[in-house]
Model the fold of this input.
Amino acid sequence: MWSPESIKFGAFLAPYHPLNADPALQLRRDIDLMEHLDHLGFEEAWMGEHHSTGAEIVPSPEVFIAAAAERTERLRFGTGVVSLPYHHPLITADRMMQLDLQTRGRVIFGTGPGKIPLDAHMMGINPDDQRRRQGEALEAILPLLRGETVSMETDWFTLRDARAQLPTYNHKGIEVVTASTISPNGSVLAGTNGLSLLSLAASSQMGFDALDRNWGVYEKVSTENGYTADRSTWRVVNPMFLAETQEDANRAVSRRIQSMAAYVNRQQGIDPEWARTPQGTIDYWRNEALGEFGQAIIGTPDQAIAQIERLIEKTGGFGTLLILHVDMANWEDTKRSYELFASEVIPHFRRSNVRREASLQFAQDNREYLIGNLVHALQKAATDYYGEQPAATAGA
Done:
């Protein structure tokens, strides 16, 4: 039975970075963030794969995860995602199995068809073929991860008596996840192959409307293929940046948020009125959408709690809430955002303070009895020490 106390929390990094800062420092800050998340008790961190357009600067999530895993102790890492049409399936499987062993089972294999059009263009891949290729790659990769021998030929790869020479760290294997946005394609692919589901556009209007519908498709297709749809493995993504007040949040992101809006708008060749001022961008992201990822919470822990409760009501429950991380504030404010989430948002859903509240409530409800007993005990102690003489006189 699902309950809010079971929700896990993590971060999802594309990663988005402004184009006017040092990329080496940006990558170092992302690794520093992994250490910070691990220290705060977050459960997961996801890193994407992109090869163009300048802002999403990690072409190899596996390389990033290998470095970050050495600096953390408990955080699980997801590839968010490996774009399967870009890689030979045997190479993909081998790299993930090596990473699984290096991290001692802390890796999650997130998969997708590839998103940025320029990536596919540079590799000569027809966008119409990407989802087909993703399915074909999974058809090869999943048995390879299970230790099976695969012979398979398509118009873009060949496998001849292919097998992975490494085992997985855990005998249950590596958790494999498929990304979904608005259409049911991801749900069908995940349900057909017994994979976990990652809903990237959970807070966009269309993505939010499709959440329960796509979960229904996932449940149906999973059952038809002999699998059980498990809410604990369902992950939803929502952009969030927190501060003590909404005004503090506005101040923290105002210097750099326009550069991140420009990243999206320049690809589309648009210059909307809202993107011409920091506050206009903040208001648009907060009330409309941060690209395909939907409405962003740029505000307080209470606003984050309200949004997560809204997602729970819509979905009926999910396993992990992933904060879409956008590099739009300085390092200290960024760290503070995650500290606020860990100290105020997570305990709300984990019911971490129920016993503390109950203890104080009991003391409040029984204050006359408890304080009366305390006063009586103090008076008795004084009488026992001083005898019948009043304490004030005895001390004179």
